[in-house]
Design goal:
- Helix content is 38%, strand content 21%.
- By secondary structure, it is an alpha/beta fold.
- It has one domain (4-161): Alpha-Beta Barrel (TIM Barrel), CATH 3.20.20.
- It has a 4-stranded parallel sheet. A 4-stranded mixed sheet has the order 4-6-7-8, with helices on one face.
């Protein structure tokens, strides 16, 4: 069994707290530290949001040595596939191959509006998720976690492929 820690980073987690969480997770020999990818707080009602998920992962990759790092989940509506692939590849290189990418369709409408992201229909977001998964598969992403979220309910989780998240 693998034991991982998932943190809702948009709820006011500061950089010193991320560092402390990562160090504690490594000391406890946890397998991974995952974070949500939101720009705006959900539970606190604070519109100021959080540190960028992939910026945080890149920084944590540089100061950790054993933890796998990743998102649960990155909405496909936030970044173009080429931009996200570059971010994930950068984090994977910094970490020495310890990065996992979790993808989702996106659900938080007010966050999309606040940050200028297109909040398509549910069908549109799921179509975009399918398109991005194809793009990553074509680019050689060997492992992608797919998590389709509608509002706050997890609809399904599928694990594709075998182990790494590196691009060829």
């Amino acid at each position: 069994m693998k034991v991982c820690l998932m943190i809702e980073g948009q709820e006011g987690v500061t950089w010193p707290q991320w560092v402390a969480l990562a160090r504690a997770a490594e000391e406890a020999q946890l397998d991974a530290l995952f974070r949500s990818d939101h720009y705006r707080a959900i539970g606190r009602g604070d519109p100021n949001g959080a540190l960028d998920a992939w910026g945080t992962i890149c920084a944590l990759a540089a100061i950790t040595s054993t933890l796998k790092l990743g998102t649960l989940v990155t909405p496909v509506t936030f970044r173009k596939p080429s931009v996200l692939a570059k971010l994930v590849t950068t984090a994977d290189h910094i970490s020495g191959g310890r990065v996992e990418l979790g993808l989702g369709a996106g659900w938080f409408e007010s966050e999309h509006i606040a940050y200028g992201f297109d909040f398509m229909t549910t069908t549109g977001r799921l179509d975009e998720l399918e398109e991005q998964l194809r793009a990553y598969a074509d680019a050689g992403v060997e492992r992608v976690m797919l998590q389709h979220l509608q509002h706050e309910d997890v609809e399904r989780v599928a694990v594709l492929g075998e182990v790494a998240s590196r691009l060829r």
